[in-house]
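Section 3.1 - Work completed
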Amino acid sequence: MKKDIQIPEVSGIEIAIVYEYNDIYKTDDWNVYIINNKDVDLELVVIVSKGYNDNKISSTLRKKLDVLPANSFAKVELIQPELFALNNDFQVSFFESNTLYDKTFSFKKGTIREGALRMIPTMKKRGVVAR
């Protein structure tokens, strides 16, 4: 039975944690984005995130996007720097051409920091990317 199940591989999707200036509150914030580098729209995108280590677990966040257009990105959530001491997982599920795809993107503890920021060409902003 298991050999009959086809699990398609996810490619062209990234999760980025971006350090950017917030014009409204006049602060520098860390924000989570999903990036669609594909030439097709993604439908019914669901993102479930949580942080954890050996003795702590953060609350679980769920976010839904009806459509993520081709070659675009969308802000998912603000993330507090205190969570960078935890491993952070973002499970992304979506439909592409009536096929369900699923992938977990992980940021290990300590990998999200100002010294690790790199330019993200799609966004023209600096951040840390999980592929």
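Second construct:
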Amino acid sequence: MNTHFCKVGKVRNVSNKTNNEPKKDTSKLEKAYSNQIEEAYNVKQTDASLSDTLYHEAQKIKRQLLSIKANANNLDAAF
């Protein structure tokens, strides 16, 4: 597994998994989304630019979540 340094200074593991287990992936993404939103809310008063970056990252995770759920249900989602 390679490590990936994101813009806010945390280290994440990057894996080259396929979507064989969408339920497991969605639970990880849901947890990551809630953590990003919570962290963005916590730093909102002290560092607005970091908070904006964290909210943007959370929105990316949310889009991934929605696309995985739409593919799992064979739905065609339009945004």
